[in-house]
Amino acid sequence: MSDAWSLVYHGFDPKAEGLREALCTLGNGYFATRGAAPEASDDGVHYPGTYVAGCYNRLKTEIAGRDVWNEDLVNVPNWLPLTFRPEGGEWFDLRDVELLDYRQELHLATGELRRALRYRDSGGRETSVASRRFVHMAHPHLAAVETTIEPLNWSGTLDVRSALDGRVVNNGVARYRRLNNRHLEAVETEAVGDDAIFLRVRTSQSRIDLAMAARTHVYPNGSLKNTDRRLVQDAAYIAHDLTVPITQGAALTVEKVIALYTSRDHAISECGLEARKAVGRARTYDALLRTHARAWEHIWRRFDIAIVPDREDGDDKRELRILRLHVFHLLQTASPNTIDLDVGVPPRGLHGEAYRGHIFWDELFIFPLLNLRMPEITRALLMYRYRRLDEARIAAQEAGFQGAMFPWQSGSNGREETQQLHLNPKSGRWLPDRSHRQRHVNAAIAYNVWHYYQVTEDLEFLSFFGAEMFLEIARFWASIATYNADHGRYEIRGVMGPDEYHDGYPDTDQAGLLNNAYTNLLAVWVLCRALEVIELLPQNRSQELCEKLAISPDELGRWDEISRQMRLVFFDDGILSQFEGYERLDEIDWDRYREKYEDIHRLDRILEAEGDTPNRYKLSKQADVLMLYYLFSTEEIKELLERLGYTFSPDAVPKTIEYYMARSSHGSTLSRIVDSWVLARSNRPGSWELFTEALESDVRDIQGGTTPEGIHLGAMAGTVDIVQRCYSGIDTRGDVLWLNPRIPEQLRCLRLRILYRGQPIELDMERDRLMVTSLPSAAHTIQLGFRDEIFQLRPEETREFSL
Amino acid sequence: MSDAWSLVYHGFDPKAEGLREALCTLGNGYFATRGAAPEASDDGVHYPGTYVAGCYNRLKTEIAGRDVWNEDLVNVPNWLPLTFRPEGGEWFDLRDVELLDYRQELHLATGELRRALRYRDSGGRETSVASRRFVHMAHPHLAAVETTIEPLNWSGTLDVRSALDGRVVNNGVARYRRLNNRHLEAVETEAVGDDAIFLRVRTSQSRIDLAMAARTHVYPNGSLKNTDRRLVQDAAYIAHDLTVPITQGAALTVEKVIALYTSRDHAISECGLEARKAVGRARTYDALLRTHARAWEHIWRRFDIAIVPDREDGDDKRELRILRLHVFHLLQTASPNTIDLDVGVPPRGLHGEAYRGHIFWDELFIFPLLNLRMPEITRALLMYRYRRLDEARIAAQEAGFQGAMFPWQSGSNGREETQQLHLNPKSGRWLPDRSHRQRHVNAAIAYNVWHYYQVTEDLEFLSFFGAEMFLEIARFWASIATYNADHGRYEIRGVMGPDEYHDGYPDTDQAGLLNNAYTNLLAVWVLCRALEVIELLPQNRSQELCEKLAISPDELGRWDEISRQMRLVFFDDGILSQFEGYERLDEIDWDRYREKYEDIHRLDRILEAEGDTPNRYKLSKQADVLMLYYLFSTEEIKELLERLGYTFSPDAVPKTIEYYMARSSHGSTLSRIVDSWVLARSNRPGSWELFTEALESDVRDIQGGTTPEGIHLGAMAGTVDIVQRCYSGIDTRGDVLWLNPRIPEQLRCLRLRILYRGQPIELDMERDRLMVTSLPSAAHTIQLGFRDEIFQLRPEETREFSL
């Protein structure tokens, strides 16, 4: 059985390899590498994916007679190939041999992947192979793989081949295969010194150079041996072949250290020169592993979360192990190494090609975890948005709005990259796609700026970068809102909420919805906070910004007015309507569809294949309205509704939750996070059930086939954040760190360490007790709120509360 | 006469053009452009330089039979060529016509360069030409030039040529012309749409793509007219030729807007695509000028300094105008647009090719100004060093030391780029160069980290980046110090101080000096502050860093020990000796040399040409020891000396100043800054005289020919900082903003606005009165120190002190 620090698979299962590859991807925020087998297939077509952060490539592709822009995450040259053949036979291939034993372990504590196998080949030779690898967390340009081969019943010679392969294609997502999938052009290959090879490729459209060097050493009987090498060289492929005598019972270790640089990197002279220099300087596998493991140790000290379930039977480490796996994968995409890169967080991480590396709104689920652990990462990711503010301004202008309108799917230069058409694999039809109307992504960005500031009090960031984005987003919301004299209120037309099942009204060609509750309330929130942001800044900075953006007092007055007169629609019983006209839609016959189809997560595809549309029904992919209770505390919702002149009734909350949960297909992995969160106080068993389901999303690939396309980073971070913020009741508001723990029945205790305003704080919770300790630091005393009371917590002070 | 916001030249002076070009360079932190004439010379060889920040190019060159690495600042394609010919004659060339009138104005407030001239050509045609241009401060990728041509006594047709020229070479520095000066390779040229041209070049070694697009519009009689264009196209040159009818007395305006992107830029898809898109979107010259001027207005509000001299005769705005010119030029190299770039501050700015864009220690003179006005820029420049920390670690290791050893001349990837040989133009000899032994650059970097933190209290930066650099530098100093049992003290061997006249002892081949006072005392200061840094960080971060860097308590003990037992050498009268053995050197016969040579700033070159060496004499290029009084207050020096067990005698200070000032040739422009500073309290007239001399360094090119090679950014910033910190007595120490003004007799009053710990503060000083006002802000109350007393200053509070 796996412990809480490792993921173990026994046996080789070709059918599960896609899933395993995604779950065993190794990365460091700069690049990541999939690939399950200890040797890589060498057929020049199919490769394990290897991605590099921030390298996008944009190609025009013809689909279904229409031009479609297609921006792809770049596969970097494959550095894994390290294979062998005994006695000049066939190169080792897992699929062609008789496997006697196979075991794969992902070590979360150290970020190392290990594989051990024994096999018998057609010549009756039995051999054991042990392989391990990592992508270095402290030296982001380095990775290493080591393979140890031991002949169990034979002696002879062994050929070893160590290659770099730039012929990779993007083929990780089956339904994208009709798109152009070749994005790398060969530039050069060459030998470097005595022991290394070098490969340079260039992305075909974005002209990014990727340079990789690999050094291969062999250690028969544990000590380094110089061996003659033969160079195998092609335009985009290069290998060193080494022939070594090998003796029964004596292990041969082959070590390959690689360095990857791109022309986008900072502090380089030229990426090829840096890559060659770096492998020349690199130490051995074991020495590199030590500094790599130490970096992970430090990361875990900041990011770990400890839960002890209240049971002793079965796999009592399962939840903890999966939570750690989730943190582990988040940190492969966003890590200390991300801080100096111009990158966002793609929804599938650096783990797979789905969504082509575009940046969506998933940060909303990811930032809270990062904010409270290593806010430098959040700051860097917000800078990614800030750099694309000009593009968002132009997008707003072109759409007839003011301010900045960030795209739903943001491409490399901040351009809208949402597909115009999408394929329903169930019907085989290409359909118009209106999802770019999800303007709510703009509210998510503003929300993230605000919460980064709340947690860090980083006035310098807010002043210099955040406020400008915030004000431009507020202005966008003010300009998209139109006054409707019939209601005496402002409304927002033609948008989509997070629930992608609804992109318009049935029996009309008009796109988008009217008064989506989620969008409208978020817009109100943004406008309120924008007015607050102006007050927070030093007066000379507010003045500068208002002049630069030409914001007049009249405009601020309009923001205030809209924030008090936005329209929301309620059902008669006080339940907030997902959008105007929702009440006129039909109820769907859930039983009929559950009976007819094995999996109804994607009811939209089912309905379309049947010639129907989800727009006709009261159903959702994920419940929009409930997102409001995920983002805001009940107090905040009450405040917003009362500002708008609506009545807030506490009774309506559980009714609203029940109403929408009954009508959700959980077509998004984020849906369970939200639902578990909103149930946490009212229905703890139900919340726990959804939480554990969400935990399994990727580990068991519950949507059937989506994990091999890349993991679901938002859902992964979201599960950790349920434990971190929802169970602990953390709320960072008004310069106070509020705590209001409510631990589920299923847990005995919960421990975590957060960073609040520069001050490390330890939280230790049991069912009836909360201990808060402020660690030694030169930072300031913080304000701690427990239920309704505020306390001062000095560095090195501990406070205990009864629950 | 020029006012305090402009620099005006009358008449065209070919001999002064190099100087004027440097002083009229326009830039925005991303790129800068020289070039004085309204038309550019079109001969394919000599061009006005145009530089782009952070693009270095490294080539191996053979000099004097030795390999020399030569890393150059990259000239980007020349975008200035916008020329014309009346009636199909010769293209306009200033040198070939009869100039009737010529006036050139650099407008500091708006960052616009204007030229107006009238001329008569060989056909007797009189024409007036008005030209203006800017490099955009708010849109860093844009620049624009506008030329208005009016035939005064003729009508006919006019050909206009608007070009982009990638055939530029680096030839701005005469003595570098034997080095390889061609760094750009042609890639492509093409027309874009109806009205634009496009050029792409690539740097030959660093493989950086530079893409430039230019849009040319003509406005006869003020309104846009579509005109047929002919394309003139070559591999690295492209132009649009337009023919326009022109009438006596009717002005024709030609507008050219350009966009420059490089493959190093953030938030791009591909640099060529972005450049084309940007000129397509760009508005007119006037519209762009408005947003450009507003950006400058905001910058001036933060950076301006006001002084009123106590005289009414003569040019009473001269000092103020030059101070503003200095701020103006600093901001062309380091500006808000620098914040997101991986760049340092080259000693000659982006203004010229001298020192090839390498990064030295000049930041020491530049950061104090930036820290107190826009610390975001300093933070970004410190990140430039942090990114090169690994390279500095390897340099230390290779030299047999521990920690990090930053290079004296830092190249693109942080590698030591100090020349191994240098040319003495006086003797024509290539000589071994030992200046890489100026290890004191490491103390300067630590000093800058510390003072950035003191001014901003940015614990996040210190914790995440600054501390690691600081500790590694401290460790370097600890490892280069060796214990000498004879003295019972530690000493440092084989280094050079800032005074480059001394690189060893006479009559020995051994390089470097023993116990350079400047180096040793700075090393002590770094070790003391390093111990303090560890205490400042949150405990978990200190622990992380100590583990990562393997710093043991024993090592910290050793730092403490060295910081108490470093050796300094004093003369008998208590004057600190520049280095051990200085007292045995000869006095030089100053009169003899002053008589024999017109200019003795560079006595080193004179002596070498005479077969002698400055190593034999008690003389300095700039006085090392006095730098200590520039960097530290008397209280700090006393503290350091007493820690070392030496006696501090206040009497020794003036004696020390007098001793070394008498022996300095001011071979560096930084020398006068330091000397003016250290005299400010004891000899106000002498200080003022040196200050005004320093002010003239570039404006009058007092070193004779060095300004055309690029301005002296350290000296420029230094003069402003004399007014800012020295006259106001600003000292940021121990969480207190100390003020102790001493205004020179020559000034009536002095006003400036600084930013201290996020709080904008206005200082208004007269001879007998100091007013301190804290502007409205949500920031914190600050601690204000006046003489020996500490006050709390709340936002919106004013305090007045008598002087």
Features of this protein?
homodimer; 803 residues; alpha+beta; 5-stranded antiparallel sheet
Description:
The structure is a homodimer of 803-residue chains. The first copy, chain A, is α+β, with helices and mostly antiparallel strands. The first copy, chain A, contains 20 helices and 30 strands. Chain A has a nine-stranded antiparallel β-sheet. Chain A has a five-stranded antiparallel β-sheet with strand order 18-25-26-27-30. Chain A has a four-stranded antiparallel β-sheet with strand order 2-3-4-5. In chain A, a hairpin with a 2-residue loop joins β28 and β29. In chain A, α9 (459-480) packs parallel to α11 and α10 (517-536) runs parallel beside α15. The longest helix of chain A is centred in the middle third of the chain and has 22 residues, at 459-480. The interface between A and B is large, with 67 and 66 residues.
* Secondary structure: number of strands of chain A: 30
Could you tell me the strand content of chain A as a percent range? 25-35%
What is the percent of helical residues of chain A?
25-40%
Specify which chain pair forms the largest interface.
A-B, 67 and 66 residues
Q: What class do helices, strands and sheet pairing of chain A give?
A: alpha+beta
- Which segments of chain A are poorly predicted (pLDDT under 50) over 5 or more consecutive residues? 38-48
User: What is the 3D shape of chain A?
Assistant: globular
Mean of pLDDT of chain A: 91
What oligomeric arrangement do these chains adopt?
A: homodimer
- The Rg value of chain A, from CA coordinates, equals 27 Å
